[in-house]
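Hi V.,

You were right to ask for the full record rather than a summary. Here it is.
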Amino acid sequence: MTEQVPERRRTGLMVFAWLWVALPFAYGVYELFRKVVQLFGG
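Predicted structure:
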């Protein structure tokens, strides 16, 4: 028999996984933007 993961738990896990990836990525883009402005904008 196969156990099925409840849909609510799977949704929570997906949200956690996306945040785990998206938050550091967003921070990196923010820092890149700051450095580009500093480099070219003075």
